[in-house]
Known about the structure:
This protein has an 8-stranded mixed β-sheet with strand order 2-1-3-4-6-5-7-8, with helices on both faces. It has 11 helices and 8 strands. Helices cover 39% and strands 15% of the residues. It has a single domain, classed as 3-Layer(aba) Sandwich (Rossmann fold), CATH 3.40.50.970.
Amino acid sequence: MKIAEINRQDEMIYPGHNACPGCGAALAVRYLTKALGKNIVLVLTASCWSIISGMPPLTALKCPILHCPFPSAGSVGSGVRRGLNARGHHDTTVVVLAGDGGTFDIGLQALSGAAQRNEDYIFVCYDNEAYMNTGMQTSSATPFGARTNTAPYPLYKEGEKKDIMQIMAAHTVPYAATATVAFPADLEEKLKTAQKVKGFRFIHILAPCPPGWGTESSDTIEVSRLAVATGFFPLYEVRNGTNWKLTVPADIKSASLSQYLGLQRRFKEMDDRRLNELQHEINRDYQRLLDQVAKVTAETQQ
């Protein structure tokens, strides 16, 4: 059954939650819960979603939720999985849900430990590229040239965005993938694939934040689509750290980086030098991805 075919009775999120209009993270979790079904447990670290979910008895989700401190999501997810196994609930899917702060930065140590131990759950990062819940501060997921409230004067992020997927690949986890809300069928397929795999699984979802990115709430899907089309956020999957597969190719003939950045006020004062530097970074990383995919293809054909 496809996401679009599920009726309202099967929704796992109640209407009237606390997310901002056009929130990419809210839409991502709506798709996630539809794809994975009702037999799930969510571990939420400190993030926008710890607010969106609400407090009992006014929770926004129809599944069990366990809130945990910022740095410990990877460890808490491990404990929940093992506790469920001890009680015979082996079929329950455990999902750890964290923002980029709880994944790339504060939660990286626990995430790395869980990945190294190959804990049997799905870790989902909804990446809005800054600490949006607490005032739009810079994170290591913030892209070069983006304006935040804590970057050094003149408030533009220096340095490249951390490549969390390369880090996960280095852990040789069974399955890792990128996704966006602009391609729900691709997102659904990757989530269902992850649900069938045993061991540690990692899903990295780009989640536009209208107030943080300075976008219109109605542009969330278009911004997500352009991120993929320009090669800014490629869609691919990695199995066991070595088997790379591109699932939605970039379409640079139909979209430009300037078009993508132009929808976001956080980039409104980006000069040509910074734009060229960011374009160089994107081109380099996308070519590296294509080389990794081509290597797998060549080895398969031998």
